[in-house]
Amino acid sequence: MDTQRAHSMNPEAKKRWFELVEEFMVKLGIKLENLYGMDATGCLPSNQGKEHVVGEQGVKNQHLQGGADCENVTALITICADGTVLHPSIIIKAKNFMSSWGNDNVSGASKVLTSFLGEILIHECRCRFMYSENGWTDGELAMSWMVKDFDAQTKEKANREFCVLLMDGHSSHYTLEILQYAKDNKIIILGYPPHCTHVIQGLNVICFAKMKSEFHRKIQDFQDLHFSNVTKHDFAGVFGQAFLHAFIPDSVKGAFTATGIYPFNPGIIPKKAMKLSLSTLIKGSFPLPQPSPVKAIILVMGSHPPTNFDLLPSHAIPGPSCTLPTSPITPSCTCPRSPVIDPSLETPSKRA
Is the pTM of this model over 0.85? Predict the structure, then answer.
């Protein structure tokens, strides 16, 4: 796990987050069908994952033929606590849009799915395509998503009541235009604490892992069937099939339950998922190796620790009445090197 995430997910962050949810969701009596969570995820149009396979004995690596396209494609996914999913939005890296990219958009057709409870469910989600020069979201695309996707699909369902939308802290989601539009249309936006979405965001905890597993499987099926890589013209069909299989009502509802959002349960986050925010857990260090002169200085410091007299503030810098020598003084002896301390492992402390 990234160090930033490990330190950010702590009891204080958890407490503040659930206080926010309680104030703007529980106390306001937000209905189940008006509670949403959105997140963006990257979907590379190639199977980049490693797999365990059965292969010939004595051969370390087993290679599988396939595409290696690393061009970024971003999918904006929005789920609702009642088990439904909004139409996904796809952001493709391009300067112009080609209408053929929307061909074979199988996620636009109704698909009958049967849950493990035996219910017959109609799942219909049509992808909407957008494009940017880097394939990522920005303030303009996020505003388009808010108006044409989120509000357009939830306004009638909300019936003039407040909606709550849970989003991460990406700057593109919080432009002045988006916040003003949300305020004018009864949309309450709650931002997750920074670097904590791996624990408290339902899409990351439950849904995305299943979707990417299905997506990689569909990519491999496409390559085996057509003997070609997945291009922008094929992406809608491959992504749509994976999306329909991954975002079933049980998984969507589980995303809100597992993170304590609905039913509201602040105690669902275990202690082992958090790291205490104590000063003792912080240790300063240099992320890069130091150059030779710095290593030499560190070595001298380690061989000759400063005395209490040296550490007095009055001796740290020359006073106004002090006179410095006009030429450098060459030491008469060479400081011995320590046989124990490796300068590359040392870090300058406050004594420097």
Answer: no
